[in-house]
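User: Hey, quick favor. My workstation is busy. Could you predict this chain's structure for me?
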Amino acid sequence: MKGLKLSLIVLTATLLTIGLSGMAYAFHSGGVAECEGCHSMHAPKAGGDFLLVGTDQSSACLTCHEHAGDTGPSSYHVSTPAAEVTASTQPKQRTPGGDFGWLKKGYNDVSGTNTYTEAGWEHGHSIVAADFLYPVDGTNTTAPGGTFPAGQLSCVSCHDPHGQYRRLSTGTIAKSGAPIKASGSYNGAGNEPTATEAVGVYRLLAGAGYTKDGITFNGVPAAKAPSTYNQSEATPATQVRVAYGVSTAGGHVTWGQWCATCHPAMHSSGNYVHPVDEGLGSTIATIYEQYVKSGDMTGSAASSFSSLVPFATNSSDYTVLAPLASNTGTSLGGPTSSDQVTCLSCHRAHASGNLHALRFDNAYEFTTVNSQYVAIDNASVTGSRAALQRRGRYVADWQATYYDRPATPTFATWQRVLCNKCHAKD
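Assistant: No problem, here it is.
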């Protein structure tokens, strides 16, 4: 019996090690996970509901998806603890969706008689997670452009915690049918359905009929990601490319349609909004391919992709999307004229170091000045322009915002806003 106990301890330690290292889908595996991972029959968190291990639903999720003590990007973590996000330290995770830790980092600065204030909750989707110090959005009472109540926003507002949505071999999305064998999010072997087995939808996202606080989703969007996706993107060779797809068949919706579930007015044609779910056209596609940085239009179609300005590939075929998903810079081809701009071309799904979860800063005309990030700890860039642009940030804040990219050679000497990746007005 003593030997059996020891063996069980060793086995448990081994499983935990596997789960916390590179296997991003070891727990959910594309569908519902073991019940005890989120619920406790006899010792649920006091004050909570549904026998959850957290006080609220997001807190239950962050029990696994936040980890204290990470020294850098780590596995499936999407949140840096509040104690590790200070005025001079930055969120550590670099997932494509962004680190919710940016919601904990506000900025203040003084320029002459002007005081600049930027609240942390302005950096993305303000999930409510009491156990992890995520409060209700302090500005919006409802989703911008919609009616979803901000006080109810949680991880399960967008993700189905039970992972019932699945992709069948016919390409149809369903809530029942063939059993889910694996995650359909990734590009590795075994992540496609067979005649008798299904795979989970991308990131356990909410599908048709999923209802929360007055809003109902009409389908799930298509995408494929590399199985290792949380890493520094300091060089082009370390960029993480998620292959976002376009489909409106068999229970799918476009990414723009999916986001519009909560933000319908953002998509009103009479609201002077940026087009989404539209083909780029040959002119924009060519500009994207040629644009390297301000003043440099020497790029090539084969190496022009940027995870700071991604696009959706005009395909509903997951076997087409899978080879495009990469974390090694092996899939950096630019768009065709039929590929599409989508909400995620400019925004991260969770949060970022910029206002409104933007992938790049658009609050000032320059990204860099004299080949440098303009920051309160960079004394070499001074004057009124510097005071306006720095907005309370350190150099490390900007670099973390851009997933560890150095100011040079990533950007031009005087780099303008990355809207120019498609429009080249700089």
